[in-house]
Write the structure tokens for this entry.
Amino acid sequence: MNFAPSPLPATEPPHDCPLCPRLVAFREKLRGEYPEWWNAPVPAFGDPNAWLCIVGLAPGKHGANRTGRPFTGDQSGPLFFDTLAKFGFTRGTYDARPDDGLALDGAIICNSVKCLPPQNKPTPAEVHTCRAFLQRQVDALPNARVFIALGQIAHQSAVKVLGGRLPKCRFGHLAEHRMPDGRVLIDSYHCSRYNQNTGRLTPEMFEAVFARAVELRP
């Protein structure tokens, strides 16, 4: 499998990042079971000149942890990339592979946690440790003025990275938060398989978040 390079290479953790012992142990276990997978911190994906930054949670086991590209290869991908395509952020066609030729214009995806956590649940300490990499990436995006947080953990990390205060920024789908320097954060329920299957997040609800982001484009 040909893996996609990061658009922000200087901001990424090392391939064998040692900072979170539990995530390192899980990574090494999966490298033994699936040596052809990416099995490493998943890099950002998209346009380094983006005005929109989408903050995800963490890699999925059979998605980004396998393919090395956010939202690629699992059941969150079709809704995610179909929505981006509808609003003009994509070039090429999503085909669930990191070498499918898909590219993003005006948008970039950065995860709050770079490595796959067991049961898709990072600990608070892991989220805190990985926030330094999200901070580096946001700092490397001078044109990003609108942010979308997918889920509450991403919301909390995004608020802190953007200089906001969590007590004043409560998570809620389509909730909107203006940061001290004028950047805007919009919340969305995560486009996970679970949220889609239970109806917590519908395609129309997800599209509404991106429609609002486009309205706020600088």
